[in-house]
Amino acid sequence: MSAMPTSPTLGCSKADLDTPALCVDLDAMEHNIDAVAAACRGFNVSWRPHAKCHKSPLIGAKLTAAGAIGLTCAKLGEAEVMATGGIQDLLIANMLVGPRKVARLVELRKIADPIATVDHVEQARPIGDAMASAGLQVRMIVEVDIGLGRVGSAPGAATLELANFIHGHPGLELAGVMGYEGHLLTIEDLDEKKRCIKDALQLLVENASLLRQAGLPCPIVSCGGTGSFVYSVEAPGITELQAGGAIFMDEFYREKCQVTHLRHALSVVVTVVSTPAADRAIIDAGRKTMHGDFVPPRVVGRDDLKFDRLSAEHGALTVDANGPGVRIGDRLEVIPGYSDMTNVLHNHFYGFRQDSLEVVWSLDARGRLQ
Ligand SMILES: Cc1ncc(COP(=O)(O)O)c(C=O)c1O
After folding, report:
1. 75 lines ligand 1 (CB under 6 A)
2. What pLDDT band is residue 3 in, cutting at 50, 70 and 90?
3. Could you give the C-alpha distances from 366 to 4, 74, 111, 341, in angstroms and in order?
């Protein structure tokens, strides 16, 4: 017998998996995909879901089959993997800087139709020059700072100037503007949240208008995350939505962003490995298995078990004396605090239909940080 873990066979139950194992409830995921796709259709907005949360070209293909126009990627390496998997229309929502990145983008352009993001001419020029020397043109989008205070050109004159540069460069095709309202996801009062998102996105749309009034093309106005999309999708003038983690959901989106109409599709199946005190149980999953910094993970169906802390490879639960208790060897199902930063810790998603393993997706772009 091999000492290595064996791959689970399709059709097996969750109880047959070795733990910890990252599982997807396919019915719930499909419900979430349909919900976001329908919201986009309802407002005539295209859906370009972020791939940073799944890093799998097969999941990407499932999303494009459900109506997504392409994918948003956080890294060039992610986009390379998605392109190799056959997905062409890729917004790389991050700045690509340095000769190696530029050379790789030129190669990527030969097999796909990426959109590079910039907020300064010093990112745009080397890309444009390299594309032009290769006899190519690449789409380029200007990220505008709509209040997030991360990257982004200042709204107004600076954005227009950069857009003008892009439009005038033979290696570049101006694709539009994007902004991310990530600073507004956790506003508690929902009326205020809606108003702040509307204002931030109005600023983005005003910048699109500024470009168009100057005679520049601006086909794409892109924004939106899972924690905001219900409001972002209805903002007048938005053409694309980037919400990606919505397909999985998690405790952060539910508890902090108040996203309530999506189902929890992602869970980690764990095993109780120690019960050192009557009120404490230890599971085989810590920080290297799941993320719980913003919001603690939650044990499904067990209000008597609460996450106390995560160390690298152990998770400590407090056990309520009034509950049924736990024993060594018990299996529990846990909803991660934040799905995005949980998934990248794993090699595979195990996709279950009810309790039957239907598909194993590998996170091919995991670790593609460059
Ligand atoms: C540029 C950008 N767009 C969208 C998102 C939202 O992603 P998600 O919908 O997976 O939360 C993020 C999240 O960090 C982001 O950085």
Report:
1. no
2. low
3. 21, 12, 21, 11
- The residue whose CA has the least distance to atom 2 of ligand 1 is 180
| Domains, the chain | 14-22+262-362 (2.40.37.20), 43-247 (3.20.20.10)
The pair phi, psi for residue 81, each rounded to 5°, is -65, -40
Structure token digits, residue 208: 């699109």
Say yes or no: CB of residue 180 within 6 Å of ligand 1.
Answer: yes
Backbone angles phi, psi at 243, to 5 degrees: -50, 125
Instruction: Quickly state the pLDDT bin for 7 (edges 50, 70, 90).
Output: confident
As to burial, measured by CB atoms within 10 angstroms (0-12 exposed, 13-18 middle, 19+ buried), residue 114 is buried
Q: For residue 75, how far is its CA from the centre of ligand 1 (angstroms)?
A: 12
Q: What is the 3-state secondary structure (H, E, C) of 185-224?
A: CCCCCHHHHHHHHHHHHHHHHHHHHHHHHCCCCCCEEEEC
Ligand 1 atom closest to the CA of 52, numbered from 1: 10
Ligand 1 center to 226 CA (angstroms): 7
Element (H, E) at 72: strand 71-73
DSSP 128: H
232 CB near ligand 1 (under 6 Å): no
**41, pLDDT greater than 80:** yes
Residue 20, amino acid: P
- Give me the DSSP letters along 98-117: SHHHHHHHHHHHHHSEEEEE
Q: Which of 32, 47, 48, 52 to mutate to test the pocket of ligand 1 (most atoms within 8 A of CB)?
A: 52
